[in-house]
Design brief:
Jelly Rolls, 33 strands, elongated, single chain
Length: 461
C-alpha cells in the first residue's frame, strides 16, 4: 500500500515539472530524418536572453511541453587540410644553344585583353637563331596563399631518367632568389614498371613568379604542365558574425564602448575602417557585466591599405577569455583615424552546439531565459551510448533546422525573483519585536497596578 505522503510527494514533483512558459523565449526545432538524436547550434537570440553565461538556463521541450534530454557537444579540435593543387601558367624560356643560360635573360610580363605573355630579351646581346629550351617561368601572381611544393607532369619515360632543376623566385622578374638549387626529379621505366618522383618541396613562398632552369649540359625538359601545392592550413568551424555600433567615452579621446546585447563567446574581433590606407593600433578590453572592471584582452593593429589591383585589410584579431557582453577599444590617437565617431565593430563566435533525443512529437522547442533554472544537460557519454570523444558524434545524427525566436514566458522570467526567505525572516523579526513590545507593555501595567491595590484595599477582618 502506498502511503499518503508518498502520493503527496509525487504530486508535488509533478506540480514543479518545468514547462516552456517557465522560460523567456525559444526557437522551434524541426528534426531532419527519423533518427533518435538531433543536433542544433545555439542561435544568436539565445545569447541575448539567457541569464547564465554558461547557458545553464536552457532546455529542450517536445510539442507536448515535456522536457527531453540533451547534452552539450564538445568543441572539436582544430583540423588541418591541404588545399587542392592549382595549375600554374608556364612560359618557356629559350636561350643560346651553346650556353642555355636563362639567368642572362631580361623578362617582363604583358597583360592585355588577349591574356598574359612574357616578353624575353637578352641582357647582353640580341636573340640569335638556333636557340633551345632552357627553362620556364611560372606565373603565381594570382595566388593568395604561399606555395609549398611544385608538381610536374613528367615527359615520356624515354627521356632522361634523372633531372636536376634550379628553382628561383621573384616579384618583379628582375631580382631573383633561390628556393632550390638542386631539385631532383626521377622518371624511370624498367621491365614494364615506372618509378616517378614528380614533386619538389620548396620553402613557403608568396612570390609572384617562379623560374625553372637546368644546367647547360643537361638535356631540356619539356613539362606538359606544372602545378602548385599549398601548405596545410587550419580548418576552422563556421562562425556567426554581428556588427554593432559604439559610443564615444566621455573625456577620453579615441576610446569607444560597444554593447553586443548579449554575452556572446566572441573569439574574433574586427574594426570596419571607412578610409583606405588606415593603420590603427588598438588596445582591446572587455567585461561580462556593466558593473565589472574592464579587463585587458589584447593589443593589435587594424589596417586597410590600397594596393595595385585591390585592397588588403587586416584579418579579424583572435581573442580569448569567455563570454562577454561589453567591449572597450582604445585607439592610438596618433593614428588620426578616429576622433569622436565610433567605427563599427564586427565580432565573430563559434556557437555552442547541443544534441538532444527526439522523444515525443515534433516540433521541439529550444527554450532559454530563466533566472531560477539550474544546469539541466547530461554528459554526452550518458546521452549517446558508446560515444567516443576521439571520433566525435556518430554518423547518422540529423541537424535540426531552427525557426524564428518566439516569446514563451516573457521577460518576467529574466527578472530577479523576490527573496521570499529574506522577507519571511524580516517579517518574523518584526512580528517578534511587536510581540515583545506588547508583552513588555502588559507587564508594566500589571506591575503598576499591584501597589495600588495594597494601599487602598484592606484585608477582611
Amino acid at each position: 500500500m502506498i502511503r499518503p505522503f508518498i502520493l503527496i510527494a509525487f504530486a508535488a514533483a509533478g506540480a514543479h515539472a518545468e514547462r516552456p512558459a517557465d522560460y523567456a523565449a525559444g526557437v522551434p526545432l524541426m528534426p531532419s530524418g527519423n533518427g533518435p538524436f538531433q543536433r542544433a547550434a545555439v542561435p544568436a537570440a539565445a545569447y541575448e536572453a539567457t541569464v547564465r553565461p554558461d547557458l545553464a538556463d536552457l532546455r529542450v521541450f517536445n510539442a507536448d511541453g515535456e522536457v527531453v534530454p540533451f547534452a552539450w557537444v564538445p568543441r572539436p579540435a582544430a583540423t588541418r587540410a591541404r588545399p587542392a593543387a592549382v595549375a600554374l601558367p608556364r612560359f618557356p624560356l629559350y636561350a643560346d644553344r651553346d650556353r642555355r643560360d636563362v639567368a642572362g635573360l631580361s623578362l617582363s610580363v604583358v597583360r592585355n585583353a588577349a591574356g598574359t605573355a612574357v616578353e624575353i630579351k637578352s641582357s647582353d646581346a640580341p636573340p640569335e637563331p638556333g636557340q633551345t629550351l632552357g627553362g620556364y617561368v611560372l606565373d603565381a601572381s594570382a595566388l593568395t596563399e604561399p606555395l609549398s611544393a611544385l608538381v610536374f607532369a613528367m615527359p615520356d619515360a624515354a627521356g632522361a631518367p634523372t633531372m636536376r632543376l634550379r628553382i628561383d623566385a621573384s616579384d618583379d622578374l628582375a631580382v631573383w632568389h633561390s628556393l632550390a638549387s638542386d631539385a631532383v626529379l626521377v622518371n624511370l621505366e624498367y621491365d614494364g614498371r615506372r618509378l616517378v618522383r614528380d614533386r619538389v618541396d620548396i620553402p613557403p613562398t608568396r612570390s609572384k613568379y617562379l623560374r625553372l632552369s637546368w644546367t647547360a649540359d643537361a638535356p631540356a625538359i619539356e613539362f606538359t604542365a606544372v602545378g602548385g601545392e599549398f601548405a596545410e592550413r587550419v580548418v576552422e568551424s563556421p562562425r556567426q558574425w554581428r556588427t554593432v555600433s559604439g559610443a564615444a567615452v566621455a573625456d577620453h579621446e579615441s576610446e569607444f564602448e560597444y554593447d553586443l546585447g548579449g554575452a556572446y563567446p566572441v573569439d574574433r574581433i574586427d574594426v570596419m575602417l571607412a578610409e583606405p590606407n588606415s593603420v590603427v593600433p588598438a588596445e582591446i578590453l572587455a567585461r561580462a557585466n556593466a558593473a565589472d572592471p574592464w579587463q585587458h584582452v589584447d593589443s593589435t593593429v587594424f589596417y586597410r591599405l590600397r594596393e595595385e589591383g585591390g585592397e588588403v585589410a587586416s584579418a579579424p584579431a583572435p581573442v580569448a577569455g569567455g563570454a562577454r557582453r561589453y567591449w572597450l577599444l582604445k585607439f592610438d590617437p596618433r593614428s588620426g583615424a578616429f576622433a569622436r565617431v565610433a567605427p563599427p565593430l564586427r565580432v565573430g563566435w563559434q556557437p555552442a552546439e547541443l544534441v538532444f533525443a527526439t522523444r515525443g512529437p515534433p516540433p521541439f522547442t529550444l527554450a532559454y531565459g530563466n533566472r531560477l533554472a539550474t544546469p539541466g544537460a547530461l554528459p554526452i557519454a550518458t546521452l549517446i551510448p558508446g560515444y567516443d570523444a576521439a571520433k566525435g558524434l556518430p554518423p547518422g545524427i540529423g541537424t535540426a533546422s531552427a525557426g524564428l525566436s518566439v516569446e514563451l514566458g516573457g521577460k518576467d522570467r529574466l527578472r530577479e525573483p523576490p527573496d521570499v526567505k529574506r522577507w519571511m525572516l524580516w517579517a518574523s523579526l518584526a512580528l517578534g519585536a511587536v510581540l515583545l513590545g506588547w508583552m513588555a507593555w502588559r507587564l508594566s501595567r500589571e506591575m503598576g497596578a499591584a501597589p495600588q491595590s495594597g494601599r487602598n484595599g484592606a484585608p477582611p477582618e
